[in-house]
Structure prediction request, 306 residues.
Amino acid sequence: MVKMEVEIGGITLRNPVVLAAGTSGVIGEIGDAINLRKLGAITTKSITSEPRDGNQPLRIADLPNGMINAIGLANGGIEDFVTNYAPNCKNIDTTIIGSIAGDSIESYVQVAKAMNNIDGIDLVEINVSCPNTSDGLEFGSCPAKLAELLSEIKPTLQSTPMIVKLSAACGDIRPHAEAAISAGASALTLINTIPAMRIDVETKTPLISRGIGGLSGPAIHPITVRVIHEVYRDIAKNANIPIIGTGGVLHWEDAAEFILAGATAIGIGTASFINPAISTKIAKKLSAWVKRHGCRAITELVGQVH
Ligand SMILES: Cc1cc2nc3c(=O)[nH]c(=O)nc-3n(C[C@H](O)[C@H](O)[C@H](O)COP(=O)(O)O)c2cc1C
Prediction:
């Protein structure tokens, strides 16, 4: 048997496969269709301080190589999360990452404080990379603002490790990664969806009501590989900060590429819409790949691209 456990912020995940934020329900409702025990972790929907309705429909466009979404962080707000979802966290048999979004330092801090007190939330992920709201990229697009935000959030988290989810939409992501690590990030999630647009040529209208949305799925996979590689090589490796590579995984080979590029764990989002069981399948196939390469642990393959 090969060792598939990986560590993120001092928390041991059973294997490197993580369900990405916003793609498996508020908190792992996809568990009705798959066995969450077979996954390394699940990430909640991004939760904000106040309830949000999100954008007007149509909010999702299906494309041959992925999808464009502009959900717009629709969620019931932190009070609803604490009342209706938090009590079940400790019954979910996998690591839970609580995702936090906001439109001001105060609103992020409010949600972080609440998440920190929830029994069963093992890590939090700070989403500063949503392209589908007017404020979703405000902190993620400027390293100085990002550092200020994280330095306010970090003390409220006490012992809960902080992951920071960055966007590839802001040019070179490395200054943002450096800022996040300096401000106390225990891990980085790379990447969120990338702003994109499609137009119906008969109606002459965009495929989604917001016009521009976030592209995900196989279309962004090579971009994700490049970003993981650059951040690992230039920053994360020396800083000993794990990367959760997220963006475009459909097959186990896509996930294996992320590991070779420098990711410690793999986020899966859009692929779950095609086949909810794909994440557990990928976890199994990654294990066979590690064995085939004569390794005793998947961690031996992290960053091993020649
Ligand atoms: C329908 C949908 C909703 C999403 N909601 C969130 C969210 O609430 N918070 C977040 O950080 N990312 C969100 N994402 C981004 C994903 O977590 C992930 O970073 C992105 O889709 C790239 O991975 P993928 O290609 O495997 O889907 C969402 C993506 C989709 C497709």
Residues 20-23, 45-46, 67, 69, 71, 73, 99, 127, 165, 192-193, 216-217, 220, 246-249, 268-271 surround flavin mononucleotide (CB under 6 Å). The domain at 6-54+74-197+216-301 is CATH 3.20.20.70 (TIM Barrel).
